[in-house]
TrEMBL record:
PANTHER family attached to this UniProt entry: PTHR47478, PYRIMIDINE 5'-NUCLEOTIDASE YJJG
InterPro entries linked: HAD-like_sf, HAD-SF_hydro_IA, HAD_sf, Pyrimidine_5'-ntase_YjjG
NCBIfam families: HAD-SF-IA-v1
Name assigned to this protein: Haloacid dehalogenase
Domain of life of the organism encoding this protein: Bacteria
Organism: Micromonospora wenchangensis
Amino acid sequence: MPLLLLDLDNTLLDRAGPFRAWAEGFLAEIGAPAADIDWLLSIDADGLTDRWDIADAIRDRYALRIPSIDLVEELHDGVVGYTRLDPLVACALRIADDAGWLPVVVTNGSVRLEDAKIRQTGLDRYVADWVISEEAGVSKPNPRIFALAAQRARLPLRGAWVVGDSPEADIGGAAAVGLPSVWLHRGRSWTDTRFAPTRTVDSLIAAVSVVLAGG
Ligand SMILES: [Mg+2]
């Protein structure tokens, strides 16, 4: 049985939408101008910025007296609260499973947040396992996190595919470990010259059909 190693944010679960929804509500709540959403989105950098740094930036800009830990918690709970599993993603995972692939999530992030998103959306019913960088002690693109996922599934890494939206973490990680990959472009063009995805698609269901067709 081959492994299907899947990224979480903006691959299996939309993160950009829930982050924006939370951010808009939060700005309204503290009485900040609605136009500040652009600043908050740029600070977040599509999820690349550490959540503690986001909290500090918010506190500084609005001179808030809320402790950073409370802001981080609010961000966590807010984003999880807005996160939904797209039925087409559930369907794609079911198709992969029926075709004999073992879907395993490999995600960079905190145990608390990633675990909550996977369970509260019901995604846990569609994947065999999930490996979270905080708990693994190593993050994508380090090949060791993919090796750990394979070890936990008691399956060889050889024959696996990696699917994700991050050029560096997902596609760079697949290249580093010597696996083929599918990149979800989300409207972007590929620019990295050090490595490239095996295939580029616009949705998870398209990624699964590429993998099932053998590339
Ligand atoms: Mg991602």
